[in-house]
Amino acid sequence: MNTAPITAATLAASVVSVPPLARNADLTLNRAENVKLIRHIEAGGVSTFLYGGNANFYNIAVSEFQELLAFLEESVAPSSIVIPSVGPMYGTMMDQARILAKTKYPTAMVLPAIFGATSAGVETGVRKFVEASGKPAVLYIKDLNYITPEGAARLVNDGLISVIKYAIVRTDTSVDPYLTKLLTLVDPKLIMSGIGEQPAIIHLRDPGSFKLGGFTSGCVCVAPKLSMDCMRAIQAKDYAEAERVRELFKPLEDLRNLHSPIRVLHEAVRLAGICDTGPILPLLSNLDGEHHANVAAAAKALRSI
What we know:
By secondary structure, this protein is of the alpha/beta class. The protein has one domain (8-239): TIM Barrel. It is built from 12 helices and 9 strands. A 9-stranded parallel β-sheet has the order 3-2-1-9-8-7-6-5-4. The two termini are 29 Å apart.
């Protein structure tokens, strides 16, 4: 595992994959199947792994955290970067901080709480997490009320944040007052678009309104080389080619948006024949069988390109 600090260069070098986590029938970690997925993603040229929502780190036990960290560290290629997640509750993240402090991981993402949080409280919580872990955090902004742009900027300016994952969904990606304000306070190259290929062109293009440093993707787990092709086209300012590639991801992304981004991706990886992802850790549940045929068709078509 690459333990170098996460920088703007990290975001520009690879799509940030956000994989699911394969489990056995008894909900224990399925090491062999997870390694299959890691090798598939790395074979497509992707070198950065973010284990967060798609891996259902929201629901893992603190008692499992150390095992997961050790497994991921030893399973990726020496050049690959792994970013685990902590939280979302304050007590959980602080227990995890003490475990993380004993590892070589360069950073960890703080999962956003959807209840029981205020902007000032989030800012304080992130500060205390970084102090306890000794590592800068990835700040994940998914909701307008989670943290103010000014609060996020204070964390960045104080050296507490490695990068920001920005994932507030807009009907029109090009109109985003929150992101526009944030970019007056924070270097755009330290922000990654966090909603897959669909808004990536608008978020990253130069010239453009945002010029973010990179993007995360779930569907990269199905078609890693294709996702890297999209990123390289954007970086080369070949936006027609980037748009062509982006459209190829749309059928599977539409199903994720319709039924559940996490649950659909979990099944898509399995139904595409990449690895057996098994059951999803509660409090989530696997996608209803009635949707499997459509997900299988979209996932297999994407993988075959």
